[in-house]
Write a structure and sequence with these properties.
The chain has 288 residues and is mostly helical. Helix content is 67%, strand content 0%.
Length: 288
């Protein structure tokens, strides 16, 4: 089942229920009301009719005929609003938007579902799909140029925010591991952007702006794989600013925390060349 919420997966895994509807001719290759027998429909209860329309929608959904599926789900919502299937139909309409990459519409529908059915057991799923919809709106790395971190990153920031909100609410959710992975992926893109801008400033002899970007990176995106490079460049920026004490601190952190990284060896060499040692506020003459 494509993107089905937990409750729906359980319901649709009940063979007797599906077999009964098949026997009535209500789960066919055509929508309910087109090829099924009217007299058979009339024999069904209110709830069974709602379920039959919903199941027909599920057939279309599985075939990726999302427009027809949404029509059938809307029939459930409009004609059978008091059935248990109305809430699920609303949720599946959101899923259909999501599967069509209409993420803004998907978010709108998921949020409406949460507002209409705040106690429904699939509220957690709806929150997860909201976060996932924001992640899907991030710039893609499919095209070589420009890299994702050079493009508009507002959607990436939104994705981090929504993943964080989801994890705060549902830290033990079945979706939590994937949420953490995707949040880390989005954070890495933001870190890449900060590093890109910092190198841009350094290349254009603006070390103060570079130091600000690198400090922000290290405070907000530590542990994402850029720390050694960021610390090394931060030390270089401080040297250009004639602040050797801060350069020493940055490079000492690099050497102590990432001793095996190639930048650590470069930092040791630079510290030796400039005669910098812990506790120094200014560079000493070599051999002094």
């Amino acid at each position: 089942m494509i993107g089905a919420p937990p409750m729906l997966r359980r319901i649709l895994s009940q063979p007797p229920l599906i077999a009964r509807l098949l026997a009535l001719g209500l789960l066919t290759t055509t929508p309910l009301g087109c090829a099924s027998a009217p007299e058979q429909q009339q024999e069904l209860s209110y709830s069974d009719q709602a379920e039959a329309y919903f199941q027909a929608g599920e057939q279309r959904f599985e075939r990726r005929d999302y427009l027809e599926a949404m029509r059938l789900y809307n029939t459930v919502r409009n004609q059978f609003p008091y059935s248990r299937w109305a809430a699920l139909a609303h949720l599946r309409i959101a899923d259909a938007y999501f599967e069509q990459d209409q993420n803004a519409s998907a978010v709108e529908q998921y949020r409406a579902f949460i507002q209409l059915y705040p106690r429904h057991e699939n509220v957690e799923y709806a929150h997860w799909r909201i976060a996932l919809s924001f992640h899907e709106q991030m710039p893609s790395d499919f095209f070589v140029l420009p890299p994702a971190y050079e493009r508009d990153l507002s959607s990436t920031r939104d994705a981090v925010r929504e993943m964080r909100i989801f994890l705060q609410r549902y830290e033990n959710s079945e979706y939590a591991p994937e949420a953490r992975r995707l949040m880390r992926e989005a954070q890495r893109r933001l870190a890449d952007y900060e590093f890109y801008v910092a190198t841009y400033y350094l290349e254009r002899e603006n070390p103060r702006a570079a130091a600000g970007r690198l400090t922000h990176l290290l405070r907000n995106f530590a542990g994402l794989g850029l720390d050694p490079e960021a610390l090394f460049l931060l030390g270089k920026a401080y040297l250009q600013l004639d602040e050797p004490g801060r350069a020493l601190t940055a490079w000492t952190d690099l050497i102590e925390v990432h001793p095996q990284h190639p930048r650590a060896a470069q930092a040791r060499k630079l510290l030796q060349e400039r005669g910098l040692h812990q506790g120094d506020d200014a560079p000493q003459e070599q051999g002094g």
